[in-house]
Amino acid sequence: GPLSERPLMEVRLGELHTWISTCDFSPQGLLGAVQRAWSSYCAKYIHVKQGGPAGISMLLAGYCLLSYGWNYQHFKRHRWRKYH
Amino acid sequence: MNLSFFDQFSSPSLLGIPLILISLTFPALLLPSPGNRWITNRLSTLQLWLINLITKQLMTPLNKKGHKWALILTSLMIFLLLINLLGLLPYTFTPTTQLSMNLALAFPLWLATLLTGLRNQPSATLGHLLPEGTPTPLIPALIMIETTSLLIRPLALGVRLTANLTAGHLLIQLISTATMALSSTMPVVSILTFLVLFLLTILEVAVAMIQAYVFVLLLSLYLQENI
After folding, report:
1. Chain B residues with CB-CB distance to A49 below 8 A
2. Within-domain flag for B14
């Protein structure tokens, strides 16, 4: 279909910057994008009949990575600290 | 700068946004709403089972008026349970290690139970200050002791949760530091220390769940006395 209506996974790499230019970057647009991403994640991995630990584990792993990134300034000096 | 082991409990902030905000709101993502399907997925079924178990356990001793507290006590229980358990993942931040947060949870709820009792049944509430069958000479001393114990309840609730979680996290950090430090020089002792660390982590998972339960159970007990 037309470029602006295709989801991100079906956009080819070369068309990426054109696709981004058709995006709606207003607060409502961004909020809508976040909601759509979250509901498609839930629909694909969590709201399935025989879901396993995979859906939640990905969320937890993402949370750990986010916390690591948040504390990065503290961790990078770990080796050189005298008192841990 | 003499940074100590207590560094892990300072709320880190990136670009001015403290991590505690994310740590407080992340548990909400782990609880998807069941929607309007008749048979839900495994996660929602598990979650519903857990909520039913908690609500039944908390509300059985309470009379009908106390059932108005079901929502807040159950949601508090799930909140504390998830926050405590998420804090055991690597690199994460546990908001319940902050005394400010635990006191902010304990004090208003305790005060609500006390004011409910004083408003609806003042003489019965004040009667709790003197246990039945006390010998007469002991009465003044016992009233003072019971009043002190009543007033110290919110402090005890908050500090109990803080102290248990802080001590657990601190122990984990200490023992893991010891394991890493020993691994180069004495590997056998390092393996023993690793075993201790493994057992301690299991204990910490248990403590995380038990402390959340104790917090809410005590609040429901204080409610039972007063409602």
Report:
1. 41
2. no
